[in-house]
Amino acid sequence: MPLISIVDDDSSLVDAIVSLLQSIGYLAGGFHSSEDFLQSPQLHDTDCLILDVRMPAIGGLELQQTLATMNYRIPIIFVTSYDSDEVRSQALQAGAVGFLSKPFSQEALSQAVRSALAIRREDRS
């Protein structure tokens, strides 16, 4: 079963996304900072990462770069309240598979996760 990790400094959003993903049959775990995720054993098993753009200390774009440097090829879906063409373009050019503006619908998130997991399966085959 695919494991989806959520990294966002908004704990209520993390809890909501974890609950949603679990209700539709995924394993999901949440983290309130990039540092917590990087130190977690879940890092090695994550099949899809839902990541906030702006967070204290290490933001989402920085985490994306860190994971690439560490050779982790985890499909990333960015979520943000601060959507801009520049940030969206930077995230997608660096390999993000999705970019959602908050608030987003459950269906938009579910579709983005399905697409990310399809990419993950292709990468593994």
Describe the structure concisely:
It is built from five helices and five strands; from the N terminus they run E-H-E-H-E-H-E-H-E-H. By secondary structure, it is α/β, with parallel strands linked by helices.
Might you state the CATH topology name? Rossmann fold
Text of the CATH class: Alpha Beta
What is the averaged pLDDT score? 95
Structural class, from helix and strand content?
alpha/beta
Radius of gyration computed on alpha carbons? 13 Å
**Quaternary structure of the protein:** single chain
Number of helices: 5
Largest beta-sheet details? 5 strands, parallel
Beta-strand portion reads 15-25%
Number of strands: 5
Order of helices and strands: EHEHEHEHEH
Largest sheet: spatial strand order: 2-1-3-4-5
CATH architecture: 3-Layer(aba) Sandwich
The level of helicity is 40-55%
What does this structure look like?
This protein is of the alpha/beta class. The protein is 45% helix and 19% strand. The protein contains 5 helices and 5 strands. Strand 4 (76-80), helix 4 and strand 5 form a beta-alpha-beta unit.
